[in-house]
Design goal:
By secondary structure, the chain is mainly α. It has helices spanning about 20-40, 70-75; strands at about 10, 60-65.
Length: about 80
């Protein structure tokens, strides 16, 4: 796979390369709160956004790189 490349030069806006840990943490918190509310006979939260916020994640989205020199480095896997 020495010639393997991404199709589009898209890069994250922050130092984090992935949001996996943030998503795992948010879903665990959501499941815990849901279980607690069900045990207390109150209604479960209908949406994960009530429990966590994507604004607190490490990565702040992605952007398209237009500079061809930088894009050549980014598309390299």
């Amino acid at each position: 796979m020495s010639r393997s490349r991404k199709r589009t030069p898209i890069s994250p806006n922050a130092c984090a390369s992935s949001e996996k840990r943030d998503k795992v943490r948010a879903n665990r918190k959501f499941r815990r709160v849901t279980r607690e509310r069900i045990r207390a006979d109150s209604e479960a939260p209908p949406d994960i956004r009530e429990v966590s916020s994507v604004w607190l994640f490490a990565k702040d989205g992605r952007h398209f790189v237009r500079n061809p020199v930088i894009a050549a480095r980014i598309i390299r896997k």
